Amino acid sequence: MKKPSRGALYSWMLIAAMAAGGTFLAVGHFGYGGDVSTGMSAASDADIAPEETSAVPSSVPTQIFSDPNDGYSLRIPASWSVEHTGADAIALHPAASSSAAACKIEVSAFPFSPGADTADWISHRIGADPSLSVAERSSEAVSVDGGTGVKWVGTIDDIPTTLVYIFSDQHAYEVAPSVIAASNGAAADGSARCDDMLQTFLPGFTI
């Protein structure tokens, strides 16, 4: 049998190399292979990341409340109502159908100097009224978007009380959850009963 010429052999080798290159390009272009799968996973992570920073389920409609004068905004359930109770204070009320319907959260803003001792500020704030009996049970740091926070748990005149203080460079914010006083005049308190509402509120607080 006659051997193929060297030119014909080179031609067949060139055709084979072009075919292999075309297959490689097709694989990269149409998304086959492990590297493309990894890229899709990263995109999915980016899509769900905002939900991981909020306690509001993605299925629950939300609203944004912003107070540019006091330097903060809130992402809260759309069913919550916002009541202005003062020039630098609001009260949040959940829907009547909510499991936290008996609770409210009051947010007050105060001037704050950068570099001031936050522990001293909290102590002076809670002990501002010497006629009240104040006892601390615990305190812990809390995570907030754009600032630092401290959760204080104790009693004020023997009423279980939870307070959160959040600090930016210009403001200190007092977040006070409490049980709404009953119609018979029973005292309100900020016990663990309203902790679920507080845990929904905090991830949506942005300075």
Which key features would you list for this structure?
three-stranded antiparallel beta sheet; 4 helices
Distance between the termini: 86 Å
Using DSSP, what is the number of strands?
A: 10
Strand numbers in spatial order across the main sheet: 3-4-5-9-8-7-6
Residue share in β-strands = 35-45%
Radius of gyration (Å): 30 Å
Poorly predicted spans: 1-53, 183-187
Number of DSSP helical runs: 4
Largest sheet: 7 strands, antiparallel
Q: Helices and strands, in N-to-C order?
A: HHEEEEEHEEEEHE
Describe it.
The protein is of the alpha+beta class and about 210 residues long. Residues about 1-55 and about 185 have low confidence and may be disordered. Strand 8 (about 160-165) and strand 9 form a beta hairpin. The chain has a seven-stranded antiparallel sheet, with helices on both faces. It has a three-stranded antiparallel sheet with strand order 1-2-10, with no helix packed on it. The chain has helices at about 5-30, 35-50, 120-125, 195-200, and strands spanning about 60-65, 70-75, 80-85, 90-95, 105-110, 135-145, 145-155, 160-165, 170-180, 205. The radius of gyration is 30 Å and the shape is globular. It contains four helices and ten strands. About 30% of the residues lie in helices and about 35% in strands.
